[in-house]
């Protein structure tokens, strides 16, 4: 923060005495000189000199000078300089007006610092204490400041009451910022949607505010549904809306909609600014069209580190680790310095392709070559890499040498590696220690239960499940999402409650009969349940990914050629670890 000391002001006054006339002009001439100085301010030094000139010329009582002074201080990120003059104990409150307070509130609301944004609300309270009436320009920035708070709706609701009290609840700009504020937290999303639905007239800005709220709260499916409604009403999305919807598509794997949005951008001649290209690039990569993402990347004239990282990430997540590493090296060759996020992407590429030596090299080079201190995400990538290739002891040693406390996620990675590679005692020891530290997370109970099941220790498995039940902890069911004809469908293993499941189980039965005739034998050892052999086969059969694939086959005409069926799997431990028919990806063959 910049706080002008008495020494600074005295030094500035000395400079003013030597650079301006010894007897400064008064009245209109002094005002014009001061306004010119404020317009020319390009540094804190200039601002402090002008502050001294204001004091020497007696302009601290000029409302126009004070307002311009506040604006100049804001542009130089020196708000403390402004407030020390405007709201000093000797300031005359009769000079204050709404325009001055709006300038100060706007300046604080636009700050990158949370403390400054809180001050915007404090100055609004001061404005009311001075018996000044807020106007329609007061509330948008004030609500923006509220939206940045940890719990925006608590303070925001009080500001909303003032909006209604002073009659600005019908102003479209105020309504848009109210929606943006309420949609900033999942707990107040319903309030945002209620305001949205009551608006008689909406603009792309309004729709973007609501769509963005859904995405920030993790409801990408609702964001896409609202976008469909926007299309149905004939409202043309702007660049911001397109970027937001692309982000939602990336979460859902909605490749058809991503491609439609790409075509829409071309058709409507929307300028391909870098943020839009990056959003499209990221969505294509995450939705499985890595080749399309690479093609777009190669066409882009301007590339940022976000562009490079998106391509590396897309290649990494789809098992094309060597290509990802090659692009990472191309990025460095192009003079783009990797940041921490880029290193996460290249380490992920090494993980998914089992490139241990390359992973070690990049991890070590972060600090040695670029001075980037590895964070817990980078350590997690290395633990994942060692775990995937069976180097469980090396992974455990790596965890023990971490400079920070390992997260529960890292410990669960190790437990999973112990299960896959048969280190049951080590996995049990780690899981029990983790339960002592974090006894409420369902995933730890699940992986420990699976460890016991793999060792056929059924009694311990049921004791773990009972402890989970007694503590009121429930496993979040795994689900799979698939896009078909522009719609997103969700599948949960064993769920028959929705209309989309009609005929799916019959399709799976038919597929099962055909692949058995082709020589398929179910890998029942991967079913971690104490049930008979027939029930184990059923457990393999009703996997949510298999339901999703069967649904696609059921709903498409015979003879349809599938280049790729892309499925998003969430919170589910996959059945089987090979490309057998127990791997749902093999069903479409």
TrEMBL record:
One of its GO terms (biological process) is RNA modification. One of its GO terms (molecular function) is RNA binding. Residues 519-563 form the DYW domain. Keywords: Repeat. PPR repeats lie at residues 203-237, 273-303, 304-338, 339-369. InterPro entries: DYW_dom, E_motif, PPR_At4g14850-like_plant, PPR_rpt, TPR-like_helical_dom_sf. NCBIfam families: PPR. This is DYW domain-containing protein.
């Amino acid at each position: 923060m910049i706080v002008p000391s008495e020494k600074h002001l005295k030094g500035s006054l000395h400079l003013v005495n030597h650079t301006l006339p010894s007897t400064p002009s008064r009245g209109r001439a002094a005002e014009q000189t001061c306004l010119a100085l404020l317009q020319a301010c390009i540094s804190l030094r200039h601002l402090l000199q002008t502050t001294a000139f204001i004091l020497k010329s007696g302009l601290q009582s000029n409302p126009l000078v004070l307002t311009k002074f506040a604006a100049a201080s804001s542009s130089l990120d020196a708000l403390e300089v402004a407030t020390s003059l405007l709201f000093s104990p000797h300031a005359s409150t009769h000079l204050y007006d709404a325009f001055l307070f709006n300038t100060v509130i706007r300046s604080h609301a636009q700050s990158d610092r949370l403390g400054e944004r809180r001050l915007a609300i404090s100055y609004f309270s001061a404005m009311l204490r001075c018996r000044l009436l807020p106007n329609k320009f007061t509330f948008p920035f004030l609500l923006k400041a509220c939206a940045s708070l940890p719990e925006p709706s608590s303070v925001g609701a009080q500001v909303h009451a003032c909006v209604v009290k002073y009659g600005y609840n019908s102003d479209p700009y105020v309504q848009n910022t109210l929606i943006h504020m309420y949609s900033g937290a999942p707990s107040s999303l319903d309030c945002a949607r209620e305001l949205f639905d009551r608006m008689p007239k909406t603009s792309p800005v309004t729709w973007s505010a609501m769509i963005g709220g859904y995405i920030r709260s993790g409801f990408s499916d609702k964001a896409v549904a609202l976008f469909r409604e926007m299309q149905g009403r004939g409202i043309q999305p702007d660049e911001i809306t397109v970027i937001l919807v692309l982000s939602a598509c990336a979460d859902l794997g909605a490749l058809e909609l991503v491609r439609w949005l790409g075509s829409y951008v071309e058709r409507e001649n929307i300028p391909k600014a870098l943020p839009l290209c990056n959003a499209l690039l990221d969505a294509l990569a995450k939705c499985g069209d890595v080749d399309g993402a690479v093609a777009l990347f190669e066409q882009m004239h301007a590339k940022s580190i976000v562009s490079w990282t998106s391509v590396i990430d897309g290649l990494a997540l789809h098992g094309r680790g060597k290509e990802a590493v090659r692009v990472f090296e191309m990025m460095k060759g192009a003079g783009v310095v990797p940041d921490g996020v880029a290193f996460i992407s290249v380490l992920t590429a090494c993980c998914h392709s089992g490139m241990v030596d390359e992973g070690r090299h990049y991890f070590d080079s972060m600090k040695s070559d670029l001075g980037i201190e590895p964070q817990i995400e980078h350590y997690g990538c290395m633990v994942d890499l060692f775990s995937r290739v069976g180097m469980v002891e090396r992974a455990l040693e790596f965890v023990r040498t971490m400079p920070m406390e390992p997260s529960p996620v890292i410990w669960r990675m190790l437990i999973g590696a112990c299960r896959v590679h048969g280190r049951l005692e080590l996995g049990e020891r780690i899981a029990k220690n983790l339960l002592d530290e974090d006894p409420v997370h369902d995933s730890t109970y699940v992986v420990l239960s699976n460890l016991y099941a793999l060792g056929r220790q059924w009694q311990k498995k049921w004791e773990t499940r009972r402890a989970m039940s007694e503590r009121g902890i429930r496993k979040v069911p795994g689900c799979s999402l698939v896009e078909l004809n522009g719609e997103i469908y969700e599948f949960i293993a064993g769920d028959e409650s929705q209309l989309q499941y009609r005929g799916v189980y019959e399709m799976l039965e038919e597929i099962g009969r055909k692949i058995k005739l082709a020589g398929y034998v179910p890998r029942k050892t991967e079913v971690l349940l104490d049930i008979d052999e027939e029930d184990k086969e059923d457990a393999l059969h009703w996997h949510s990914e298999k339901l999703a694939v069967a649904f696609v086959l059921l709903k498409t005409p015979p003879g349809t050629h599938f280049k790729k069926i892309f499925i998003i799997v969430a919170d589910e431990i996959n059945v089987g670890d090979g490309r057998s028919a127990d791997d749902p990806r093999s069903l479409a063959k």
